[in-house]
Write a structure and sequence with these properties.
With 206 residues, this protein is of the alpha+beta class. The chain contains six helices and eight strands; from the N terminus they run E-E-H-H-H-E-E-E-H-E-H-E-E-H. Strands 1-2-3-4-5-6-8-7 form an eight-stranded mixed sheet, sandwiched between helices.
């Protein structure tokens, strides 16, 4: 697997109603650090960890090195980091990673939002905006989301978007101190010719 052939231009903000995605910026660091500290109990069960242990608790150190590294992925065509915005407030993150070009043309998504806005339909819109961007602007063919089977809130996101279940990956990612199973969901560009935001709207009106 290889990234895209060149750098990914910084995307313009993506928006539907009050929900938007915009590129992650260095000046987002203090706000994200506060969000991560305030949401420790909400997020820690789903956070990636190191098998050998160690590593800083999210929110306890500056986010600037992480943001710099994530923005660096755009320069090599391998990823795009966003913040999730509700109105004028940054309420979470969405990261596109593992972008591959060539014969694969795929990517993976990961995301989180603050507990104080959970359950308001923000995450499905953010995910739909990101996938439409990947298909329509970057020309990718397939996007995958892997979710722990215990993460019912995240499973509701892919259910609302009607993403296709592809099976369980045993001991797939080290999360919260142990290797955890994940369920894989995916969508291809051919499955959503009008876009995923349009599909979400249609399902909401059915």
């Amino acid at each position: 697997m290889a990234p895209l052939a060149g750098p990914i231009p910084t995307p313009e903000p993506l928006q539907d109603g009050d929900v938007a995605l915009r590129p992650l910026r260095m000046r987002d660091a203090p706000h994200l650090e506060r969000l991560l500290r305030d949401n420790r109990h909400w997020l820690e069960e789903w956070e990636a960890t190191r098998p050998a242990g160690g590593g800083a608790t999210p929110g306890s150190v500056s986010m600037k090195p992480t943001i710099r590294a994530m923005r660096g992925l755009m320069k090599i065509g391998a990823g795009v980091p966003f913040v999730v915005v509700l109105g004028d407030e940054v309420v979470g993150q969405l990261s596109v990673s593992e972008i591959s070009g060539g014969a694969l043309c795929s990517a993976q998504l990961g995301y989180w939002v603050s507990e104080h806005v959970a359950g308001r339909g923000i995450t499905p819109i953010a995910v739909a905006l990101a996938i439409d961007y990947l298909f329509q602007q970057l020309g990718l063919h397939r996007v995958e989301i892997c979710i722990r089977p215990e993460n019912h809130a995240s499973l509701r996101v892919v259910e609302k978007l009607a993403l296709r279940y592809e099976g369980r990956r045993a001991a797939y990612i080290h999360i919260n101190g142990a290797w955890r199973d994940h369920d894989a969901f995916a969508v291809t560009r051919e499955e959503v010719p009008a876009g995923l935001v349009a599909r979400l709207r249609q399902r909401g009106s059915d």
